Every structure is written in structure tokens, then in C-alpha cells.
Automatic annotation (TrEMBL):
This is Cytochrome. GO terms for molecular function: cholest-4-en-3-one 26-monooxygenase activity; heme binding; iron ion binding; steroid hydroxylase activity. The keyword Transferase does not apply. It comes from the Bacteria.
Length: 417
């Protein structure tokens, strides 16, 4: 593939199809890191922004959450979608999740669920997650010798974990999966419900309708689950609004499984395409913690977040005015040659591994420990039984500008009983 020009390279950020074409994407990001690590992008239907591609610049921005705030533009969206979101928020109906908030409100809202994701809570979940991992490896064995690993295994295992934490009935899991794919898959022809913001709005309204009923039920009769914790939470002595409660459920129920699904399926592909690393990990299971970090770096399910400057400043010597927005390219940061030795080599023993797939600073992913545990448990369960595995067709990546990964991974395999 020919090297893109700088202007061509910068356009990958506003092209959802670029994330489904990894050679093109990484060629562009490599070009930008080397020659224009802070690039202005002005392409309709998006408002202008500055794309940040180097690891050091992204971490510096994320550390300074007073200078760089999430509101009013926490992620890349077309101008009409930004306008609709703001209108909905102003009317009391818009999505207001942790990624939309800044301190002190962000810190207070994050504290609502923090106990569920502390090390002690994670240790108590370990046995249950190990059981679920074994269950889905057994499903592979029963489904073999071929399956679409994404659709039959990878989307369902983490979905089951997070839905169980919330205390939702198993009969509702398919609905949550469909709504999540529609919410995050608005740029993908296979997943999206409609082409415009108006056509996609019913997805959000469906979420709000479902979780509004759940909130009422858990307030009337609390149970020992995460849904009850959210429904009955208070901040400064007042209960959460219906919108804030529903928004909390939406981010937990979607990001809580979709990103982990992407990591597991991308990790499976990496282990298939790098049999030496698969053999190394199988022979040295003590490498699993570093292998999990490498899988997460390699896949980087969350492609970006955005921040807006509260004052005139500079990034990498480039002046950025108050009110202008920056796009934090985690995919680029996780291949930064100045941070990672041989960044395009998949290495299950990579150490150190200072990837930014979970973000950095006060907005570091609250569910990171859970995601790591799920990935580790699954491959711990799978690898000892795996006798052979290969691709049975072409992997397909979702078109996206925000969250995503593989949507199809046909594999052929043999597992021992």
C-alpha cells in the first residue's frame, strides 16, 4: 500500500470504514505520528477538531482534566448528532453517562458503583466468571468443528457476565445485545437501525424505556445486584434523576460487555495468526496477565474520546484555542514507536506495556479489572483444551468511529474433551 499524504491520513478519523481496514488505518496513523502528530481535521458532517496521535500528548491531556474537559463533546459525532444530544440534554431527555461528565459531578457519579469494581469485589466474582468461561468453552466444543467465534461465543460470554451483575433476566439478554449493537454500530451497515440521528434515536428511547421500568422495580423492591445500587443511589442527599439512572444503566450494559467482546474476539484472532505466541502462552500460563494486556493493546476496542480546551493552550507546540476540541486516538497511541518496542509485533510477554486502551487519568475505565478478569478466565479455560485452530474464512471488522472490533470471525478448531 502506498504511503498516504498527510491530508489523506488525517481523514481516517472521520471515515468509519477506515477502522474496518487495518492496513490503511495504521499506515495513516504511522504517517501522522511521524510528521503531524497534532492534525487539524475539518470535514463535514463533523465540526473541526485536532487529532492527537502520540502517546505522550494524549496522556498529558488526560492528566489535566481542568484544562481539558469532556463536555460538551466527549466523542466524535456528526454536527447534527451533537446538536440533537445537546437539545435532548437541555430538555432533560439526553444521555448523561460518566463519559459526558466532568468533575465534581463525574467523581460523585463514579463513586456510585466503584465498590462493585474494587479488588475485593473482583476476587469474589472470580469463581463465577471462571464458571462462565468454562461454560462458553464447552459451547465451543459442542458447536465445533467450526463457528463464527464473535457471534456465537465472544458477544455472549461478557454479555452474560454484565447482565448477571445487573441482575437482569436471561430472557432479556438478546434484547440488550441487539440494542448495544445498534447503539455502537450506527456507522455499520449490518448493525445500524437507520442512517440519520432521527432514525437512530429510537434505539436510545428503547434503552430508556427498558431501564425506566427496571429503576421503578428496583426502587419498589431492592435486590442485591448492581441495578439496585444504581436505582437507589443518592448524590448530595438526593436520588439520581430518571435520566441519570437510565444513562448509568446504558453505559454499564453496553460498554460493560461490547468492549470486552471485542477484546476477546480480537485476542482470539491474534493468537490464531501468531501461533508461536499461542504456543508460548500455552506452555507458560504464568504469562497470562501480560498476554491480556497485549490483547487489549492490540485490539484497542475504544478508538477515541474527545476533550475540549477551557483556555488557550498548546499541544506538541501547536496552538489550540479555548473552546476547540481534540480527538484522542488511542489506536495510534497504542502503536507509538517511542513507547512500544516493535509496536506492530504481537508479544504475549510484552513488559512494560503502557497502553491507553482503558484511557488515563480520572476517566480511566471503571470496569478495567472486570474486563481483564473475563479475558484471562476465558483463555485460561480454552488454551489447555485447544488442540488445533485456524481461520475458516475472512475476519470482518465493524465500521465505526468510536467502539468496535470484529463482527465476524469464522474459525475451525479441535478441542479435547
Amino acid at each position: 500500500m502506498s504511503t498516504p499524504t498527510i491530508d489523506q491520513a488525517a481523514r481516517v478519523f472521520v471515515d468509519p470504514r477506515a477502522y474496518a481496514d487495518e492496513p490503511r488505518l495504521h499506515a495513516a496513523l504511522t504517517q501522522l505520528r511521524a510528521h503531524r502528530p497534532v492534525s487539524r481535521v475539518d470535514q463535514r458532517p463533523y465540526r473541526p477538531f485536532w487529532a492527537i496521535t502520540r502517546h505522550a500528548d494524549i496522556t498529558a491531556i488526560e492528566r489535566d482534566n481542568r484544562l481539558w474537559i469532556n463536555a460538551p463533546r466527549p466523542l466524535l459525532a456528526p454536527a447534527y448528532a451533537d446538536d440533537m444530544q445537546r437539545s435532548l440534554v437541555d430538555s432533560g431527555m439526553g444521555l448523561r453517562t460518566l463519559i459526558h461528565m466532568d468533575d465534581p459531578q463525574h467523581q460523585k457519579m463514579r463513586a456510585v458503583i466503584s465498590e462493585w469494581f474494587r479488588p475485593k469485589a473482583m476476587r469474589s466474582l472470580q469463581e463465577r466468571i471462571d464458571e462462565l468461561a468454562q461454560r462458553y468453552v464447552e459451547k465451543m466444543a459442542q458447536r465445533g468443528p467450526e463457528c463464527d467465534f464473535v457471534q456465537e461465543i465472544a458477544v455472549n460470554y461478557p454479555l452474560y457476565v454484565i447482565m448477571s451483575l445487573l441482575g437482569l433476566p436471561e430472557s432479556d439478554f438478546p434484547r440488550m445485545l441487539r440494542l448495544t449493537q445498534e447503539l455502537f454500530g450506527g456507522d455499520d451497515e449490518e448493525y445500524r437501525r437507520g442512517l440519520t440521528a432521527e432514525e437512530q434515536l429510537p434505539v436510545l428511547l428503547d434503552f430508556f424505556g427498558y431501564f425506566g421500568a427496571l429503576t421503578a422495580a428496583r426502587r419498589a423492591q431492592p435486590t442485591h445486584d448492581l441495578a439496585s445500587t444504581i436505582a437507589n443511589a443518592t448524590i448530595d442527599g438526593a436520588p439520581l434523576s430518571d435520566v441519570d439512572t437510565a444513562s448509568y444503566y446504558v453505559i454499564i450494559a453496553t460498554a460493560g460487555h461490547d468492549t470486552t467482546s471485542a477484546a476477546i474476539s480480537g485476542g482470539m484472532r491474534a493468537l490464531i495468526e501468531h501461533p508461536d505466541q499461542r504456543g508460548r502462552l500455552r506452555a507458560e500460563p504464568t504469562l497470562m496477565p501480560s498476554a491480556v494486556e497485549e490483547i487489549i493493546r492490540w485490539v484497542t476496542p475504544v478508538k477515541e474520546f474527545m476533550r475540549t480546551a477551557t483556555a488557550d493552550t498548546q499541544v506538541h507546540g501547536v496552538p489550540i484555542a479555548a473552546g476547540e476540541s481534540v480527538y484522542l486516538s488511542y489506536v495510534s497511541a497504542n502503536r507509538d514507536e517511542s513507547v512500544f518496542a516493535e509496536p506492530f509485533v504481537f508479544d504475549v510477554g510484552r513488559d512494560p506495556n503502557r497502553h491507553l486502551a482503558f484511557g488515563h487519568g480520572v476517566h480511566f475505565c471503571v470496569g478495567a479489572a472486570l474486563a481483564r478478569m473475563e479475558i484471562s478466565s476465558f483463555f485460561h479455560a480454552l488454551l489447555p483444551r485447544l488442540e488445533a485452530i485456524e481461520l475458516a474464512g475472512e475476519p470482518q471488522l465493524a465500521s465505526t468511529t468510536f467502539v468496535g472490533g470484529l463482527k465476524h470471525l469464522p474459525i475451525r478448531y479441535r478441542l479435547r474433551p
